[in-house]
Design goal:
With 431 residues, this protein is α/β, with parallel strands linked by helices. Helix content is 44%, strand content 16%. It is built from 17 helices and 14 strands. α2 crosses α9 and α9 runs parallel beside α10. The radius of gyration is 25 Å and the shape is globular.
Length: 431
């Protein structure tokens, strides 16, 4: 346990440091090499890297149509019902985000419009690792579907036998995804951004992943003519703010629900009550013994932080400084504090709002900024799958009304051609 007020500013910053941010120089170099390999060798590099990292010796990268269509018969009725419930709620929440176009007359005869259009082609990355994630297929696929994106490309790493889970395939079909490729990691990001013989490049890449995937997304976004990215979404993290009235059983469960995602996940508990922290730590040890992924969760909990603050106000300050991907607020009157919780990817208010709800079926999107990027990136939403553009239409009267101002500004900036483009139109000899 660390007492926040007893730490220097440097010690506080170190306490909130993410575990996956170490050895960045090595990570950057490795990812750059993978991207270069994919750029030079295309499919050959993808097949080679898939065999190296996933142990799968593939004949082709594309998943055949039969494997997508047969998935429904391979998923249990119970899981199928759960996927369909999640699909309904996620779709409903994202349909409510459909933007309205704007059309106004800023001056007489001057019409300005803001219009929205779906991105044409999107790349959806679904992490593999130690657990299949059909929920991420839903989060990305439904949003692309509601936005109206014509081409949806899904990349996910196969198992050693060259297969992917039926739940992922079933969710992909629900979302209208018919391009599925058996490739993961930084090489999948490179393929979607640059293009290979099998995978035609996309306009924008979405989805979470480990530190290699996150680094790859950032690197390809800087390639001229490459794909845009949604956000730096890396290893999962949660911060729980709890007070003396919080239930330590619930607090521990929320910490562990993030820890089991992966060994590089991080769970942070911030409280102004020492007894609550002690009880939560004890409960974590107790609940760990019942988890099927106890080894992974135990490793992740080595990166956990238990921070004792002097007050709720200070707990909120710590949270805002950390800027967590998931923020769980188990305090009395949690909603009243929402305006002060400035930096978080997604907020879960009150003891009946586990982070698991947002991960699966409440309707919000679980693709969220990590590494503290919640300060300047938003949670994934419908707008991310669309582009805005503007339209202006001037009548002759409209140009007469604002033309003099345009010419004066152009002259002030020394841009004669700009001024001339207006002057020639207003010259009666040219009309």
């Amino acid at each position: 346990m660390n007492t926040w007020s007893k730490l220097s500013a440097k010690e506080q910053a170190e306490l909130l440091r993410r575990p996956a941010m170490s050895d960045n120089v090595s990570l950057t170099k490795t990812v750059a090499e993978i991207i270069g390999q994919v750029e030079e060798q295309g499919d050959k590099a993808l097949l080679s890297l898939t065999k190296r990292f996933d142990g799968a010796d593939l004949a082709q990268l594309a998943l055949d149509e039969n494997s997508i269509n047969s998935a429904e018969d391979e998923v249990s009725e119970q899981v199928k019902a759960a996927i369909l419930l999640a699909y309904k709620n996620i779709k409903r929440f994202h349909q409510a985000q459909l933007p309205e176009d704007v059309k106004i007359e800023t001056s007489p005869g001057v019409i300005c419009e803001l219009k929205h259009a779906p991105l044409n082609s999107v790349g959806l990355y679904i992490p593999g690792g130690t657990a299949p994630l059909p929920s991420t297929v839903l989060m990305l696929g439904i949003t692309a579907q509601v936005a109206g994106c014509q081409r949806k490309v899904l990349c996910t790493p196969p198992d050693s036998e060259g297969k992917i889970a039926a739940e992922i395939r079933f969710a992909a079909k629900l979302c209208g995804i018919d391009e599925v490729y058996l490739v993961g990691g930084a090489q999948a990001i490179a393929a979607m951004a640059i293009g290979t013989e099998s995978i035609i490049k996309v306009d924008k890449i979405f989805g979470p992943g480990n530190s290699f995937v996150t680094e790859a997304k950032q690197q390809v976004s800087r390639i001229a003519g490459g794909a845009a990215i949604d956000m730096p979404a890396g290893p999962s993290e949660v911060l729980v703010i709890a007070d003396k009235d919080a239930n330590p059983v619930f607090v521990a469960a929320d910490l562990l629900s993030q820890a089991e995602h992966g060994a590089d996940s991080q769970a942070v508990l911030v409280s102004d009550c020492k007894a609550l922290i002690d009880d939560a730590k004890e409960e974590v040890c107790k609940q760990l013994t019942n988890l099927s992924r106890a080894d992974i969760a135990s490793t992740a909990m080595q990166h956990s932080r238990y921070i004792l603050t002097d007050s709720l106000e200070q707990s909120i300050q710590v949270s805002n400084q950390y800027a967590p991907e998931h923020l769980i607020v188990q305090i009395t009157n949690a909603r009243e504090e929402l305006p002060r919780l400035n930096n978080a990817g997604s907020v879960f208010l009150g003891q009946w709002s586990p982070e698991s709800a947002g991960d699966y079926a409440s309707g919000t999107n679980h693709v969220l900024p990590t590494y503290g990027y919640a300060r300047n990136y938003s949670s994934l939403g419908l707008a991310d799958f669309m582009r805005r553009y503007t339209v202006q239409e001037l009548s002759y009267q409209g140009l007469q009304n604002i033309g003099p101002a345009i010419m004066d500004l152009a002259e002030a900036e020394g841009l004669d051609a700009h001024r001339q483009a207006v002057a020639l139109r207003l010259d009666k000899e040219n009309n």
